[in-house]
Amino acid sequence: MSATQKVQQHPAFQQAQDKANYYVSQLDKELSKYPLLTTFEQRTQVPKTYAFIGGVVLLIILHGFNAFASPVSNLLGWGLPAFLSVKAIESPGHNDDIQWLTYWVVFGFFNFLESFALRLVLYYFPWYFAFKTTFILWLQLPAFRGAETLYGTVVRPVFVNVHHAPNSVQPQTSASADQLRDRVAAASSE
Predict the structure, then answer these.
(1) Where is this region: Disordered (predicted)?
(2) Does residue 48 contact residue 41 with C-beta atoms inside 8 Å?
(3) Cα–Cα distance, 143 to 80 (Å, whole number)
(4) What is the pLDDT of residues 163-178, one digit of tens each?
(5) Is residue 45 helix, strand or coil?
(6) Would you list the DSSP string of 142-178?
(7) CA 69 vs CA 63, 73, 84, 128: distances in Å
(8) What is the DSSP secondary structure assignment for residue 2, as one 8-state letter?
(9) For the segment 48-79, what is each residue's pLDDT rounded down to a tens digit?
(10) Is residue 4 domain-resident?
(11) CA distance 130 to 56
């Protein structure tokens, strides 16, 4: 007889298993009162009790992670990329330079936006830092190249729209500077 079989046949294990099955069946009865959960169970073939327990466990994990997530996400967003950026500067190729330049532009843009709305976001989205850490990993990891994706779809179009806006101030050319000098001279001679 194996050690696993001995443990499973032990009276204390049997008693704990019976008690757990009882509580799961009671929870299933309570959750059956909600048609949404019953529909979820029918569509996904995942027992509603296990889905509920999994959701509660996920919330506990997110809450526990979120307690330390702000410094962790900031360290993760700076530490590894800084090291890999220095490594990219020292390498002869330019592909890694593009990856890390786009990362820093997107990361900086994201942090800039975050500085305005952090309190509002934290109020409505309590596990923000846990998801921010996942987002930062998506930006960094070469398998996803999230920084390049966001740069091409969000940051660059915003930059192009602002840079080429019709009301934006255009730099003066030497011809317009000469015209301005002539107007000043004419006004002062009058």
Answers:
(1) 169-190
(2) yes
(3) 15
(4) 776 655 454 444 444 5
(5) coil
(6) TTT-HHHHHIIIIIHHHHHHHHT-TTSPPPPPHHHHH
(7) 10, 6, 22, 9
(8) -
(9) 999 999 999 988 887 777 777 778 888 888 99
(10) no
(11) 16
pTM of the complete model beyond 0.70: no
Lowest mean pLDDT among 5-14, 25-34, 162-171: 162-171
∠ CA(52), CA(53), CA(59), 5° rounding?
A: 90
Per the structure, the complete domain to which residue 73 belongs is given by: 68-154
Q: Is residue 180 part of a domain?
A: no
| Residue position matching structure tokens 């704990």 | 16
Sign of CA dihedral 79, 100, 143, 66: positive
CA distance 6 to 23: 24
Is residue 31 included in any domain, yes or no? no
Q: What is the predicted pLDDT for the residue at 144?
A: 87
